[in-house]
Design a protein that fits this description.
The complex is a heterodimer of chains A (289) and B (942).
Chain A: E1 10-17, E2 21-27, E3 33-39, E4 45-53, E5 56-65, E6 69-73, E7 88-91, H1 95-98, E8 102-109, E9 112-118, E10 123-128, E11 133-139, E12 144-149, E13 158-163, E14 167-177, E15 181-188, E16 194-200, E17 203-211, E18 215-222, E19 228-230, E20 236-238, E21 242-250, E22 256-261, E23 268-273, E24 277-283
Antiparallel strand pairs in A: 1-24, 2-3, 3-4, 4-5, 6-7, 8-9, 9-10, 10-11, 12-13, 13-14, 14-15, 16-17, 17-18, 18-21, 19-20, 22-23, 23-24
Chain B: H1 2-24, H2 34-39, H3 43-55, H4 62-75, E1 86-87, H5 96-122, H6 127-132, H7 140-157, H8 168-171, H9 174-188, E2 193-194, H10 212-231, H11 235-248, H12 252-264, H13 268-281, H14 286-298, H15 302-315, H16 320-332, H17 334-339, H18 355-364, H19 372-387, H20 393-405, H21 412-424, H22 432-460, H23 476-490, H24 494-511, H25 516-533, H26 536-549, H27 554-566, H28 570-583, H29 588-605, H30 626-629, H31 636-668, H32 672-685, H33 690-702, H34 706-719, H35 724-736, H36 740-753, H37 758-776, E3 808-811, E4 814-817, H38 823-835, H39 839-848, H40 854-858, H41 864-881, H42 883-893, H43 899-904, H44 908-923, H45 931-941
Antiparallel strand pairs in B: 3-4
Helix pairs in contact in B: 3-4, 7-38, 10-11, 10-12, 11-12, 12-13, 12-14, 13-14, 14-15, 15-16, 19-21, 21-22, 21-24, 22-24, 23-24, 24-25, 25-26, 25-27, 26-27, 27-28, 28-29, 31-32, 32-33, 33-34, 33-35, 34-35, 35-36, 36-37, 38-39, 39-41, 41-42, 41-44, 44-45
Classes of the chains: A mainly beta (289), B mainly alpha (942).
Chain lengths: 289, 942
């Protein structure tokens, strides 16, 4: 961090202009391919598969659908099944109705299953699906754009929630105080809405936020020395850490609406925005952070 | 117009003054000054100054802005005011090296993923896997069973909750209710809910349904989770994730990391066992050795710690943490340490050194040792000829000039030329190349030293050692290097000698001389140096190389044996010692070691230790003692030619074996495509090996290339007309080609050759069915069931055994799977038995089911009817035959998820059955349980 050269650098590897509005882009697991989806100006939906080859993305498949395609996930597929394309597609009618209400899941095992939801009035609620109850709720004053757990397959650890006004909050979910809830740290990052937050698959402390002005910020969460402390009455309360900015770049003038890290190659990620462009970027020196 | 302009200018002015006022009210102009900023330590105020400066209202001063930013950064390096949006980095913003590195990494990643993807595609798609996963909806049979419980539920749900009457609100006592809620609150307030699932995290993962590849991915994933937890200082959690990873696939890294996490938690014993596991998997693992030393130190076993650390330092002399830890330990117990200066003793072998001198006198007595200058001159042109194509001409000229004018440094130049040549060559030799290049550069200066000091050395050695004495077919400079190495070795300067030998080997490779004997000697000598340095791994490598060049030469074998010995790989050491003794039975050291190792191995593996040994190679008669009998120098050239021919043959043999082994390994890893490649290479070397054909046929079968598989089987059968394996595989290939007739005749052939091959019988049955079907409706092809073919064995001469899992039961038209592997299959079988009312079938099912799996299998499918059915079966069928099993089942049955509910739903008959069962059980006598045990158990049921 001391010299600018030791900082991670973000480099655009591939930049591909598309002839439709792209809403979501995702890597296909265990391959150098990715899927882009969105809608054509004529109102139909489209899904394309590209393959990364020598600094260029080659279109290998295109499908047109009657309804625009909003987002997709490979979350429910095994490595083998993906070849049969276990892609779950969600078509949508109106983007703005779904805006401001984003959900994300957490499932560790049968004992523990939670879903977190953010609302456009700034509420964040953590639902316990096991007991069918609200386990925790808070308000971050601004409309919530995106919430993500740092890992989905471990015991709840951290939660990042981004807001319309360019702030994001990181909650430490390990210690829940009966009245104070979870400890959190807030950071003002962008001058515009933070559309997306995604954690690096290789390091859960590092995450990227994508802003409405086409900028990408790379952050690292540092734990405090003690993650929880005892209050005078013996009740444990969590202690929030700090967030450090590792790098920030501007790739576009339009909002970046989707972001996806590659799970196989550290630092490689895909982002697409409303400028009808999909980009493959690489972050260097992530192993040194 | 004019008025409009005036207005706009006025407006502009007013906004300007407004802003100026607002800012200047905070920051007076005097503050915008180098001296003031330098003195100012108020971060907030500096931010304001910076904002004013950047706004440009007071004028634009780039240098002052920069100065202010620098000062602010000094005070608060992470200040937000310093954050600037930067454009994306491009090639120009990075150094050339970095850029090319990034690009290289990306291309390699692309290739790797492509490769991995094709591999994934080759795997038979998920049919096998899908089969095992229970379907989401239950089977039809269960519906009839659940009817009763459904109605019971319905009955319950029919009790509607009637809304309270409004009048009830009149009776509502607000204060009381408030108090009650307050009381509840106080009561229910938890003492901070720590969300800790660590204790709940299962340390075992069920991977039975996964393919090898998925397991690998999963194990890595769990390990990464552990690493992340470790980084967050959550060691307990880290340990549980590492354990999960290990339960999937045990890896060195996960063991190592778990050891480290255990060390952090001061769980010394656990850490120790993990270190041992690592060292078992990989004996020379530096991290594990280091960690073991740390544990030893903390457990107070200082000597062992020190010993371990020395081992580490032998392998990695510059390991900082090892050095630090060692000095710490030594400080702690100086007096003890001096007494205990124990080392791993590497047994000395006599005449370690004289191999070279011996050789020299053997072969080159004829050639008199010439005066230095003359020899050099005669050698120089030849040398140049060798290097000519690899070297730029002008360079050569320059070198030649230097040769002529300085005779004192003559030996150096051809060598440094070698180094030059190295750079120009596109060499694909070995990974050592890089290192060698480095040493060469140093080598040129080092050899200059040696040259200057050589006269002194010679006088020291009493003038008996001639450094330029020729050696084998080595060109003089290399011979000189070798001799220097020998001298250094004799003087005990092993690492210097090692360098000389490395140079000589490098020079040899560059010069392109074809004299495997000499290279063998060089490798062997370098191995000796490594052995002395305690670097057993490298020693083994060099010995192996030497042995590839010259199979069954005594010294490399002996050295390798010692190296294995010191690495505690006793089995390999044993084999090598035994080979040594075959060559020359008079090597006392080998005898001693064999005896010692035999004892160790018996301790380790018990009486059957011999069976675990790798094969001891048979030494051909020609190699036995061959060096003693060889007539010195008579027809050296001819003998060498012969030897070269023999070598080539042996090399081919060795290569063949290696390729075959690689192929087999690939098969084991299910990388059939690669295996096919290896086997094909094998066949190029030796087209008449039957086993290779059958193995390749297996690979083709796995790859669904039935035609090729059939061809291979045909070839194998031509070579060996009674190879049942070939028949069996051809049958499978024929089956794949839907030629059932040929397939069945092949299978009959197999059964004729060996009637005990069950797989063939089974296959035959299946094929006959298929044959009939295909005859019946020629138009329709029935989807085939894939038949698992197990992997080839090491000796690859065994018909694979088909796992016996698909044992089915056919009676009274009920076909059930008697060996269910998950709850779904169990439920299916049980329901089938139940709906058919066949208690005998159910009894069989229960006999084959392990009692401890019962609760898991039953899980959510247990209801009153099933329970009473099971009890009935236990009572009527199993109690007499196997009372112990009944007890075990009962002992586990009550642990099932829905047991208590099922008990509630039990009807009268069911309860009677239970009490009958327990009465009977009480009357049975067994060694496994007592009456009180049964009584206790009965309390849980009745």
């Amino acid at each position: 961090m001391s010299t600018p050269l030791s900082k991670p650098q973000m480099i655009v590897h591939i930049q591909k202009s598309l002839n439709y509005t792209v809403f979501d882009s995702k890597w296909i697991p265990c391959s150098a391919k990715f899927v882009c989806m969105g809608n054509f100006a004529r109102g139909t939906g489209v899904m394309q598969i590209y393959e990364v080859q020598r600094g260029d993305a080659l279109l290998i498949k295109e499908v047109e659908k009657p309804k625009p395609i909003k987002c997709a996930t490979f979350g429910a597929t095994s490595i083998q099944q993906r070849h049969m394309c276990g892609l779950f597609l969600i078509s949508y009618n109106d983007r703005w109705t779904s805006f401001g209400f984003f959900m994300t899941g957490h499932a560790f095992n049968e004992q523990d299953r939670c879903v977190c939801a953010g609302y456009d009035n700034g509420d964040i609620k953590l639902f316990d699906l096991r007991n069918m109850s609200v386990r925790w709720e808070t308000n971050i004053k601004n409309g919530v754009c995106c919430v993500e757990f740092d890992r989905k397959d471990i015991d709840m650890n951290k939660l990042v929630a981004t807001s319309l006004e360019g702030k994001f909050h990181v909650f430490d979910l390990r210690t829940q105080h009966p009245t104070k809830g979870f400890a959190s740290v807030c950071e003002k990052a962008h001058k515009s809405t933070i559309w997306q937050v995604k954690h690096l698959p290789q390091n859960r402390e590092i995450f990227m936020t994508a802003g409405g002005a086409g900028n990408l910020h790379l952050w690292k969460y540092e734990y405090p020395r003690q993650r929880c402390k005892k209050e005078s009455n013996g009740v444990e309360v969590g202690v929030a850490g700090t967030v450090n900015l590792l790098q920030n770049v501007t790739v576009s003038t339009q909002p970046i609406a989707s972001l996806d890290w590659n799970t196989d190659k550290r630092g490689l990620f895909l982002c697409s925005g409303f400028d009808q462009t999909v980009r493959v970027l690489i972050v260097t020196k992530l192993n040194l952070v | 117009m004019t008025s409009a302009r005036e207005v706009s200018s006025l407006q502009g002015e007013s906004t300007f003054t407004d802003r100026q006022r607002s800012l200047s009210s905070e920051v007076p102009v005097e503050c915008l000054d180098y001296a003031y900023i330098e003195k100012c330590n108020d971060v907030k105020y500096l931010e304001k100054i910076l904002r004013v400066l950047r706004s440009g209202d007071e004028g634009f001063y780039p240098h002052l802005i920069q100065f202010c930013e620098d000062h602010l950064e000094k005070l608060d390096p992470k200040n937000r005011a310093l954050r600037k949006a930067t454009p994306v980095a491009t090639a120009s913003s990075l150094s050339k090296d970095e850029w090319s590195q990034i690009v290289d990494e990306l291309t390699t990643w692309q290739e790797e993923t492509k490769h991995a993807e094709t591999l994934l595609k080759q795997q038979p798609p998920c049919d096998d896997v899908m089969k095992e996963i229970p379907s989401i909806r239950n089977s039809n049979c269960s519906i009839s069973l659940n009817k009763n419980s459904n109605t019971a539920e319905r009955r319950k749900s029919s009790k509607r909750v009637i809304p309270r009457d409004y009048r009830e609100w009149d009776k509502f006592d607000v204060e009381n209710e408030c108090k009650r809620i307050d009381g509840n609150m106080n009561h229910s307030q938890p003492a901070a809910s720590k969300i800790k699932g660590i204790s709940q995290i299962k340390t075992e993962v069920d991977t039975s349904l996964l393919t090898q590849q998925e397991k690998l991915v999963m194990a890595n994933r769990e390990k990464d989770k552990g690493n992340e937890a470790f980084r967050a200082n959550d060691y307990e959690e880290a340990i549980s994730y590492y354990s999960r990873s290990l339960s999937i696939i045990p890896t060195v890294a996960a063991y190592n990391n778990r050891a480290q996490a255990a060390i952090k938690l001061n769980q010394w014993q656990n850490a120790m066992t993990d270190c041992h596991s690592v060292l078992q998997l990989e004996p020379g693992n530096v991290k594990a050795l280091l960690r073991r030393a740390t544990i030893h130190k903390h457990m107070g076993q200082v000597q062992q710690a020190a010993k371990g650390l020395r081992e580490v330092l032998k392998m990695e002399p510059h390991n900082v943490s090892a050095t630090e830890l060692l000095s710490e330990i030594e400080k702690e117990c100086q007096p003890e340490q001096q007494k205990q200066g124990k080392k791993i003793i590497i047994q000395e072998v006599e005449e370690e050194k004289d191999e070279n001198t011996e050789k020299k006198t053997e072969a080159f007595l004829v050639e008199p040792s010439q005066p230095v200058g003359g020899e050099e001159r005669s050698a120089a042109p030849a040398e140049r000829g060798n290097m000519g194509n690899a070297q730029k001409k002008p360079n050569g000229k320059g070198d030649l000039g230097q040769h002529n004018d300085s005779s004192s440094s003559h030996t150096k130049h051809p060598w440094s030329k070698g180094a030059n040549a190295d750079k120009y060559k596109v060499s694909t030799q070995e990974s050592k190349e890089k290192v060698a290049n480095g040493t060469n550069q140093r080598g040129s200066t080092a050899s200059a030293h040696a040259d200057q000091g050589s006269s002194g050395n010679q006088t020291q050695a009493g003038g008996t050692v001639n450094l330029d004495a020729p050696c084998g077919a080595l060109p003089p400079p290399l011979a000189r290097l070798k001799n220097e190495g020998n001298l250094l070795f004799k003087n005990g300067q092993f690492s210097d000698a090692l360098e000389k030998y490395s140079q000589a080997i490098q020079g040899y490779n560059d010069s392109g001389i074809d004299s495997p004997d000499d290279l063998c000697v060089l490798y062997s000598n370098r191995a000796a140096c490594y052995l002395k340095d305690g670097n057993s791994q490298e020693c083994i490598q060099d010995c192996t190389k030497a042995l590839e060049l010259q199979p069954f030469s005594l010294k490399p074998l002996l050295r390798r044996a010692m190296a294995y010995d010191s690495l505690e790989r006793y089995q390999k050491a044993y084999v090598d010692y035994k080979t040594v003794l075959q060559i020359d039975a008079s090597v006392q050291a080998a005898h001693d070691s064999v005896n010692r190792i035999t004892r160790v191995l018996i301790d380790q593996d018990g009486t059957e230790w011999r069976e675990k040994l790798p094969e001891i190679p048979l030494v051909p008669l020609s190699a036995q003692q061959h060096r003693r009998e060889e007539p010195p120098s008579a027809d050296v050239l001819q003998a060498r030619a012969e030897k070269a021919a023999r070598d080539a043959e042996r090399k081919a043999e060795v290569r063949f074996a290696a390729l075959k082994q690689e192929g087999n390994d690939f098969v084991k890893k299910s990388q059939y495509q690669d295996a096919v490649g290896k086997y094909s290479e094998c066949l190029k070397l030796k087209p008449e090996d039957c086993a290779i054909y059958t193995n390749r046929a297996l690979c083709y079968l796995k790859l669904d290339m039935f035609n090729k598989a059939k061809q291979d089987c045909d070839a194998a059968l031509k070579l060996e007309p009674t190879n049942k394996k070939a028949f069996y595989r051809r049958a499978l290939a024929n089956k794949g080609l839907k030629d059932y007739l040929a397939s069945s005749s092949d299978l009959q052939e197999v059964l004729q050759l060996d009637p005990n091959v069950q797989e063939a019988e089974k296959e035959l049955e299946e094929v006959t069915v298929l044959l009939r079907q295909s005859l019946a409706n020629n138009s329709q092809g029935k989807p085939r069931k894939t038949v698992p073919i197990t992997e080839v064995d090491d000796d690859d001469e065994e018909i694979p055994a088909v796992p016996d899992s698909a044992d089915t039961y056919r009676s009274e038209e009920i076909t059930i799977n008697l060996h269910p592997s998950n709850s779904y299959e169990f439920g299916q079988s049980l329901n089938a038995a139940h709906s058919g009312g066949s208690t005998a079938v159910c009894a069989d099912l229960l006999t084959f089911t392990a009692p401890e799996n019962l609760p898991q299998y039953l899980s959510t499918q247990l209801d009153g009817l099933t329970l009473s059915f099971i009890v009935k079966v236990l009572d009527t069928h199993l109690l007499k035959k196997k009372p112990d099993l009944v007890y075990q089942h009962l002992n586990h049955l009550h642990k099932a998820d829905r047991f208590s509910i099922s008990m509630m739903l039990l009807d009268k008959d069911g309860r009677q059955h239970i009490s009958h069962l327990f009465e009977h059980l009480l009357n049975t006598e067994s060694t496994q349980f007592t009456q009180s045990d049964v009584q206790n158990l009965a309390n849980k049921y009745i």
